[in-house]
Amino acid sequence: MDRRRLYLVDDDEQVRRALGRFFSRVGFEVRAFDSGAGFLAAIDALDQGCVLLDLNLPDGSGIEVLRELRARGSDLPVILLTGYGDQAALEEARALGACQFLEKPQDPQHLLECVRTSLLMPGEAIGL
Amino acid sequence: MTFLPVEGSTGPIFDLKLDLREVQRVLDALLSFAALFDLDGRLWLANEATLRVGGFGRDQLLGRRLGEAPWFSHDPSIAMRMTEAVAAAARGESSRFETRALTAQGEYLDVDVAFELLRDDQGNGLAVLASATDITDLRRKAALLAESETLFRALFEQASDAICLFDPVSHQVVLFNSKAADVLGYTHEEFARLGIGDIDAIESRTETRLRVDRIQRVGFSTFETIHRRKDGTLRDVEVRTSLVVAGGRELILAVWVDISERLAAARRLEESEALFRGLFEQSSDLLCVWDPATLRPVLFNRVAHESLGYNEAEFRALTAYEIEAPESSVTIPARIERLRSEGRVACNVTIRSKLGARFHGEVRAWPIMLEGREHYFSVWVDRSARVEEERFRLQRTREVELVLRRACLGEMAAMVAHELNQPLQAIALEAEALGYELGDLDGEGGHPGVQAIRAAVLRAGDLIRRIRGLVVAHTHDAVSTGLFCVVRNALAMNEVFARQHGVCVEAELDPQVPRVAGVAVELEQVCLNLLNNAVEAAAGSTDARCRVILRRGSPDKVEIVFEDSGPGASPEIETQLFEPFVSAKPGGMGMGLRISRQIVTMHGGTIEFQNRSAEQPTTVVVTLPALAEEEAP
Lengths: 128, 633
Prior knowledge:
The complex is a heterodimer.
Chain A: E1 5-9, H1 13-25, E2 29-33, H2 36-42, E3 50-54, E4 56-57, E5 60-61, H3 62-71, E6 78-82, H4 87-95, E7 100-103, H5 108-120
Chain B: H1 20-29, E1 33-37, E2 43-46, H2 48-54, H3 58-61, H4 76-90, E3 95-102, E4 108-119, E5 125-134, H5 136-158, E6 162-166, E7 173-176, H6 178-183, H7 188-192, H8 196-199, H9 205-218, E8 220-228, E9 234-246, E10 249-258, H10 260-282, E11 286-290, E12 297-300, H11 302-306, H12 312-317, H13 320-323, H14 332-342, E13 345-352, E14 358-370, E15 373-382, H15 383-437, H16 448-472, E16 479-481, H17 483-500, E17 504-509, E18 516-518, H18 520-538, E19 545-552, E20 557-564, H19 571-574, H20 592-602, E21 606-610, E22 618-625
Parallel strand pairs in B: 17-19
Antiparallel strand pairs in B: 1-2, 1-5, 3-4, 4-5, 6-7, 6-10, 8-9, 9-10, 11-12, 11-15, 13-14, 14-15, 16-18, 19-20, 20-22, 21-22
Helix pairs in contact in B: 15-16, 15-18, 17-18, 18-20
């Protein structure tokens, strides 16, 4: 059972709640945020865990949140989740060291696998 | 020559110690009429002139009183006066007056008659001398002269031209008609005090003196000058001058007419001629004037010969038969026939170039007068090029529309995908969590129901992805693109739309802007979107005007600016202009600006909206990165 922390950043309440329920059920300590600003306000450079970050947020793009995170010196593994693929965003995410760029809907087991992998190999980027 | 005394006559004459023959000869030599009467008033001697005009023989007259003579007997009052004048002269009372005599030919003569008593040395009366001079011609001339003077005065006064006499030395006005004073706005008294220098606005005194000298030398001079009116306004005039002598004095006669209107008309004619010449020369159609006798072009524009590969001289030497291809729908003689009977003709005509290339077009012709002779004027319009151009424009419009349609569809597919993928993801996760609740703790294989839900969700997601792939699967193959053509094509596509909305679209396009890396049809779609938006915004505004500017922005940027005279966007619309399905237009889909931004972004550029303010109209600026000079082909 994982007791590691998972940060969820998604403005869609349904998705946020489902992700929270699923990852809690498999043993993660889930901390959920409905905006990029809320997440950035709560996070500390020394915090550990994995981030599941939605690309489209009400207060800006997930890419901007990722950039800010890196600017603060955090190397938290980040998996970007998006409602639809965007080639430009994918390339930018890759450049900012995102582990994964995944398009919804994903098989929950695959999602779990990705989160676990990212926690083992933080910072290694892989494709969509 | 006959001689008196008449037989049987008596009187004091016989007492004269005169040589009567000598007296008769002297009287006969006179051209005037002369006769001698005795103191009793009876005719005693008459000269040849008198008898000739009387038409009577001497014998018939002698011894008669003057009133009884046929010259005067026609009028009793004259007859009496004449007899009395002789009697009065016999008493020593001389008289002289003018009267009227009748000749033997029945003509009246005006005569100046005088009666004088001839006396002897002692002063005794001897005879009365009656003499008369024919003044008929003199009177007629005097009457004519008076008539002529009246006529001249009337002509002088009533002439439509201004007439003036100047003193050649002082240059002062001597005599003038009312028109002269009127046209220059002076009263009669004021004008009488003027000199040439007061009237002529451009001539110096020296120039006037030289001109007057010349008139005195040559006798006349005609010239154009400018006259200054009393109120200071200037008039163009034509002056005709001549040297006249009046009362033994040399004067300069000047007659002038106001030619300001004529000159203005001439200037207008020149301008109009230049305008039509310009239109003639710059027309893109082939314009020719044909000599109907030779069917050779006598006048044509540059397009006419250049587009067919001839120089001017070669073209002038051709006939219509050499320029036209034989396959024209109506033969030349048939066309001329129709032109003569109907006054104009229009038909399809194929012409050929010097090298034999054929061009299909339409000719319209009608007769015109040139140098007083009928010629034919023809306008040949190239239909092949126009058809091709129309076809190209239609095709281009379709392509541009396709870009919009595809982009709209892509945008909608993306939105639908996003909106559906979110709940699908939630379903999958919730089902998975439920599976754990149902005892499938490791998730491997899982509950069959959970497996089914997972599979269905993934299938739905895959389906959405595939559908979206179908509509957004287009490649962005950017090539070096000239924005001048892009904007011009968009303007052409917008032309009808703008006209329908009553909006005037101005374009300031710099053809020298650097090229950009892009897809022309996509950029045309952006320009067309923004142009249509601008036209719709401007329609109904006071000015109803749009402006498109293509210019170099910062050194490595090209800007396309769209301005409109519309009221601008409301604050609530302004913040959402680039959001999908947001439109300020009734019935607008709200995709145009969003798609424009996507296309511009894809080209590495930006699109910026500046709302209307006191300083500037509503403006949209598209900025695109310029290709470096060496990148451009």
